[in-house]
Design a protein that fits this description.
Structural class: alpha/beta
CATH class of the largest domain: Alpha Beta
Number of strands: 14
CATH superfamily of the largest domain: Metal-dependent hydrolases
Largest sheet: 8 strands, mixed
Length: about 750
């Protein structure tokens, strides 16, 4: 097979944030459509899009070439930095680039730029290729200033830092100085025996995207499109050109074209995805993680049982049931390789509890784990409330566990600091998030850069329905006035198409509300870090999905103001001499006065119970036990409220309807909800009891019901009905029950979360 004519190595995607209109998927599709076998991504000062690019490119049969367009400091004049394009050859180069970018963000911010000091490169550049930086390189700047000796000296210095790996970039993208620059660069190349390469700085996919790209740049820089004074560094030529177009453009320099292909061949980084990497957890006396978790869990369970069942005879009678559950969970956790995860979470939660940081009792499916309860990760007995371990960690579907951990808002940072001190500051960071241009926001942004009157734009924006996540295309379908006005008003005829091209594009960089990474060693071995100028907090340059893809483990440290308020309330109570030892954990769950508050809807400032809909539901239900409060949390959501099941639940609770349990064996499962399937755990238990599913298989059934894939549901229906028939269940009852489960799967809530 003959080599291609040309490979694009320089592309700014939407993740360049300040410029770049290219969506990663669109870039890969374009490369495939024009039969380009490799493609480079080189965003400005970041690697935000690398994992998404890698997956998309590999999925399309295209070789991904990883690069980064970096700022280089200029010690002589900090206001005139230069740029260099670094391309990664292999894993060592990737690690080196991660270190350089991280250091730039942590140590060398200047006027919004994270700059690499050229002196840092003297420590080594193995695994990195350098392209001179196009028109923004210090070599090009010197040539344009008619300082040929300085340009040659600069090129010589770069070539020394990247021996055999430095190329002079030649570009023809419509800049008026292009030919003068190319002549100067070719002279330097001939003098110093340096190779040149043709590149094209892609900023958008198609020629007609230019104006939308200019609007994107103006939004980022706070400028107006029509301002005659604004800088205009981009041209209409910076679209994704075909190899034929590039071959025509550089017909006089075939070697420069060929070098783009040669460089792509030299870059062979592969990312290892899907393999989780936990930090090492220290154990005493060289004990294995498996044995240490087992020891800690058994000791913890014994302490829990002493508190749950003070009467020794009762405790002895119940212990076999708890031990059997504990052994099952331990076996699953060890088999899946997650003891380290549980021990790490237990360690920082117990540190928080022992150091005055209030911690939530447990939220989410993790509350279904007895091991978590024994290790003091949670404070809920899962057996008492029929919470299922398989809903949290399914032995038939391997996936990372994920505890939602609530800390007092004021103490959360102390816990993160403890983790940094324990595992190393260079091993811990928070996680990046990306804000995008949503439908209403993008209309306002584009209206501003078009210099349209605020009230005029605001009136138009208000035509977009107030629906979460609605797109402009959906809004146009639901509100005919949008198209009608855009057709008849010249200003809107320009605003709407520009907004649609920018909708969904990355607009800013933020920090994940709760996610914290703990790496097995330096984080820069896995990904670079980003830090906003003026901030002390570093975040990964990969978002939560991408850090998990490369194997880093996310721990959720959620700050909850309610815990702060509760801690303050406890301190007030403890001021009374006779209440000095008061603890929330000792409060009974059968206090009639508390249930009266709920029945009256008097729950202002009560977590998840203060909305109007919650108060209305509380007054209708008039709950008188803890199970009713749990159900309230699950029922007060749009799905259940709109389905009619809430009315049935209330009627059965108040004795106006008779509960129906379908089968005598299901009464223990459905009794607390009066025969109505409210929780996902109930779906799983029904499948286990009536149709013989394992709880792992029942969790797969629950997931299948949520996905609503017809072929999968037909298969599950057959398994369910066959299993029910083997256990002597009436076929019509089994069919009706499966239909109900399928319907309630749309609304079913995780009881552990309630």
């Amino acid at each position: 097979m003959t080599d291609p004519q040309f490979i694009h190595l320089r592309l700014h995607s939407e993740y360049s944030v300040a410029d770049g209109l290219v969506r990663v998927g669109d870039a890969v599709k374009r490369a495939r459509d024009i039969a380009m076998p490799a493609l480079g991504l080189s965003d400005l000062s970041n690697t935000f899009g690398w994992v998404k690019f890698y997956r998309a490119a590999r999925g399309a049969g295209i070789k991904p070439v990883f690069g980064c367009d970096v700022w280089m400091s200029n010690a002589a004049d900090r206001n005139r930095p230069s740029r260099l394009l670094l391309l990664v050859q292999h894993r060592e180069g990737y690690r080196r680039l991660c270190e350089l970018l991280t250091r730039a963000y942590q140590e060398n911010h200047y006027r919004g730029r994270a700059e690499i000091d050229p002196a840092w490169l003297e420590a080594g550049t193995d695994g990195l290729l350098a392209l001179s930086g196009g028109d923004f390189s210090n070599v090009a700047q010197a040539l344009l200033d008619d300082k040929r000796d300085a340009a040659r000296t600069a090129a010589e210095a770069w070539a020394a830092l990247f021996p055999g790996r430095y190329y002079l970039e030649l570009q023809r993208y419509g800049a008026p100085h292009s030919e003068r620059l190319i002549d100067g660069l070719l002279d330097i190349g001939a003098t110093l025996n340096l190779p040149s390469v043709a590149t094209h700085p892609i900023q958008f996919i198609a020629p007609d995207d230019f104006k939308a790209h200019e609007a994107r740049v103006c939004i980022a820089e706070g400028m107006m499109l029509g301002d005659p004074r604004r800088p205009r560094p981009f041209t209409t030529e910076q679209y994704f050109k075909t190899p034929d177009e590039m071959a025509t453009l550089f017909a006089d320099l075939p070697e420069a074209l060929a070098n783009s292909v040669a460089i792509a061949k030299r870059c062979n980084l592969t990312l290892e995805l899907g393999k989780s990497r936990l930090p090492d957890f220290p154990t005493p006396d060289g004990m294995s993680l498996d044995d240490y978790m087992r020891q800690r869990s058994i000791e913890g369970l014994q302490a829990r049982m002493a508190a749950l069942y003070p009467d020794e005879a009762t405790r002895v009678a119940r212990m076999p049931e708890y031990m059997a559950r504990l052994e099952f969970e331990l076996g699953t956790i060890i088999q899946m390789g997650f003891p380290g995860y549980f021990l790490i979470v237990s360690d920082f939660i117990n540190w928080a509890k022992n150091n005055g940081v209030p911690v939530g009792p447990g939220r989410g499916s993790g509350a279904g784990s007895l091991v978590a309860y024994s290790l003091s990760i949670t404070d809920l007995d899962p057996l008492e409330y029929d919470l299922l371990f398989e809903r949290f960690l399914n032995p038939e579907r391997v996936s990372m566990p994920d505890f939602d951990i609530d800390f007092c808002q004021d103490g959360r940072d102390r816990v993160i600091q403890y983790v940094k001190d324990r595992y190393g500051h260079d091993a811990v960071s928070q996680i990046v998030t990306f804000g995008t241009m949503a439908s209403k926001a993008v209309l306002r942004d584009v209206g501003r850069v078009l210099d349209l009157p605020y009230l005029f734009v605001d009136k138009f924006v208000k035509l977009v329905p107030n629906e979460l996540g609605i797109t402009l295309a959906e809004a146009r379908e639901k509100e005919p006035q949008i198209d009608e006005r855009a057709k008849n008003e010249e200003e809107l005829a320009e605003l709407l198409p520009l907004a649609e091209k920018l909708e969904g594009i990355t607009r800013n960089v933020g920090m994940h509300a709760g996610g914290v990474l703990i790496a097995p060693g330096k984080l820069t071995d896995f990904c670079p870090l980003y830090r906003a100028e003026g901030s002390d907090s570093a975040v990964s340059q990969f978002d939560k999905d991408d850090v998990e893809a490369i194997g880093l483990v996310k721990f959720d440290f959620l700050g909850l103001r309610t815990l702060t308020i509760l801690a303050e309330a406890v301190r007030f109570v403890q001021r009374h001499e006779d209440r000095a030892n008061f603890r929330l954990e000792d409060l009974p769950l059968n206090d009639r006065a508390v249930y009266k508050l709920f029945a009256d809807g008097n729950t202002t400032a009560v977590f998840q119970s203060e909305s109007r809909s919650a108060k209305d539901l509380e007054k209708k239900l008039k709950g008188d036990c803890f199970e009713d409060i749990i159900a309230l949390m699950a029922l007060n959501r749009p799905g259940p409220l709109g389905s009619g099941m809430v009315d049935d639940f209330i009627a059965r609770k108040q004795g106006k309807q008779k509960p129906e349990y379908f089968h005598p064996d299901l009464e223990p499962v459905l009794k607390s909800t009066y025969g109505i399937i409210v929780y996902q755990e109930q779906v799983m238990l029904v499948a286990q009891i009536l149709a013989g599913y394992s709880l792992g298989a029942a969790d797969m059934l629950r997931r299948a019901m949520g996905k609503k894939k017809p072929e999968e549901m037909a298969q599950q229906r057959e398994i369910f009905l066959t299993g029910a028939a083997k256990r002597g269940a009436d076929t019509k009852v089994a069919e009706r029950l499966f239909d109900l489960m399928e319907k309630f799967a749309e609304y079913g809530f995780n009881k552990s979360h309630s």
